[in-house]
Amino acid sequence: MAPPxxxxxxxxxxxxxxxxxxxxxxxSHDRETDIQFNDxxxxxxxxxxxxxxxxxxxxxxxxxxxxxxVTDHGVVLSAExxxxxxxxxxxxxxxxxxxxxxxxxxARDTNSVFRIGxxxxxxxxxxxxxxxxxxxxxxxxxxxxxxxxxxxxSAYLYFGGLWGGQLQCYQAGNTPxxxxxxxxxxxxxxxxxAKALFPKVAKLxxxxxxxxxxxxxxxxxxxxxxxxxxxDDHDRRFFEAAWMHKRGGKYYFSYSTGDxxxxxxxxxxxxxxxxxYAGRMLEPVLGWTTHHSIVEFEGRWWxxxxxxxxxxxxxxxxxxxxxxxxxxxxGRIVTEKPEE
Length: 340
Hints:
This protein is mainly β. It is built from no helices and 21 strands. It has strands spanning 10-19, 22-30, 48-54, 71-78, 93-97, 100-108, 114-121, 129-130, 144-147, 155-159, 200-203, 216-217, 220-221, 240-247, 250-256, 263-268, 275-282, 293-297, 300-307, 319-327, 333-334. The protein has a 5-stranded mixed beta sheet, with no helix packed on it. Strands 1-2-3-4 form a 4-stranded antiparallel beta sheet, with no helix packed on it. 45% of the residues are buried.
């Protein structure tokens, strides 16, 4: 059983990036609360973000008994610094583009509606200065930023989460004005013929603080039909925890299936999709949520994720872990190293 990477704090939703040869982790910071568990996620009552770094994983394997050395760079952003935020700093992500660093984060605004904010800094360890308002046109949770390796360093933001993340409230369209509070709670489309709701994607403008164009659906197709995944297919449909990475010219969009507790992925030829479902990469762990990132570091691929083993199963007190990932000859993700 892999050890938690961080034990002096509870951390979750790890977004891992490599900048200048060092690995940085941007997680949520879980804390104790008296709020009872509910499907709206009120017990996930986070108020700030830390940044962590790892110098090397060269001697680490998924079977290692001891965690690698992790440095805590302290609080880099807190809710009290962000004028529009009322509560719940949930899963963040970070990006570097043209020498500047950006921290993307979801939170409830003063109307208790989730929006996505951005803060900028000159170092991967912050501090980060937030914009006074959320990103125009943003909504829901779990932002994941992706900067492509093309000449323009094209950048994208993926986001969305069902139930407490409010994605189901935007079935009328992809703008904040389409919000329908009647869909609040653990609700989503269901029944014969109903299709799963799509995660969202928007191209980031050159300033990395706004969208260049409209928010779009990120289409995920079932391989056996070539059609969008059914809403009742809870083992494969998107729930939350968007992540994008690229390998061998292919784009890999991965996500959590939520109430079925799998981490799964889909493959496409464009960062805007469509993507075709390709399989699972992590089975359910201890704890309700599962959330991850995938990064190449020192020539190996790593899956960062979390579970609740350190807190002995308390759902809102999670701990970041890491395990190695592999690819087969067809480019599919596998959890064991393929034979040569």
